[in-house]
Give the backbone structure.
Amino acid sequence: MKQSTGIISIHPIVAESEELEDVSTEVEWRTDTVNVAQHGERLDRALVDMVPEFSRSYLQQLIDLGLVCLNSQPVRKPSTRVKAADSVTIELRPTPQSQAFKPQNIPLEVVYRDAHILVINKPAGLVVHPAPGNWSGTLLNALLAYDSDIALVPRAGIVHRLDKDTSGLMVVARSRAVMDTLIQAIAARDVSRQYLAVAHGQWSGPNSRTVDAPIGRDPRNRLRMAIVNLASQSGKMARTDFILLDNAEKGCLVRCILHTGRTHQIRVHMASLGHPLVADVTYGGSTVQCMERQALHAVRLAFVHPVTGEPMVFEAPVPIDIVALMDSWGLRYNPQKRANGP
């Protein structure tokens, strides 16, 4: 298989687009010619042969950014077919995605630490993992700066997630073996995760309810999740227990206990009960003066330590914005009023 002809030129440039402004300005051009064996291949596959030290995913990012030229013309479709003797020029530069796994000095509230795990109280507004639109400034970036050894662990040891605007407790693994054990414990439902939610509407009916309904992408809006019919739509089973803690004319304070961990699970299930979370505009909630993010907080986390076998229980204080909301509606929280569990 023909290899790259090598570096044509290397020199620093100024970033030309907003999405590249925060990455390194080092750039390298490489050029090559499509050989007979590559004739008719997809462009992204041909690039893998030309610059085998880079992943196909990274090369596709360069194509999407217009940094690959075929016969001197920019090409933005990885599926473009190449022909023998075509000239290919690749502008190798860091992309937002390639820079995502970088340490950043972001404050963390670490509530517990030992040689094996960290327990974090995540603030609202902090994205957990890099993704389109948030390639930096995430919990992952903060963890890499907090603990350099955690770079050796996949996803920096993150074994479960919270939505950007959900606050509260998360456990993080500090080694691959511990990460595997925690993932197995979560899959076996041996990790207890309880949340506080403030929702619109006065609660009626039984104080305890269980919603056992599958969740998948909303077919009418791909940015939302919804309860779906598995006979005709893709989705996964989801179960949440809800326990009323206090009630008021404007809304209710509810303890939510996850049995599964689907995307937006509590938010979707609460909305299905006619009680969308305060400020959760995606699922029918409305903002109020003191609350501009969904009123959801991961208040309690309990599990068996993956190495010592010791039962671990953590509780996080209620954030000030949720406290202000409860005060304004006359809701009271008693930490002792919880469901049985580990």
